[in-house]
Known about the structure:
The chain is about 80% helix and about 0% strand. The protein has about 70 residues and is mainly α. Helix 1 (about 5-25) runs antiparallel to helix 2. It starts with a helix and ends with a helix. About 10% of the residues are buried.
Amino acid sequence: MTRRVSVFLVAVAAFMIFEWINLGFNLADGHETSFYVVHGVLVAVNILLALALGAVGVRGWKRGRA
């Protein structure tokens, strides 16, 4: 994996974490419980995916070629 791809993966992971945490804090009150459960699961799954992408990106950066 090239370093350019590694940087891209880390940048996408950082953006995903920022965006989904921001969404989680900005959910307005007044919805049903199921709304919050579904969105909580979406936030959790996407943060886990972002962490996995970030790990692949960092590993690729360490082993990558210029």
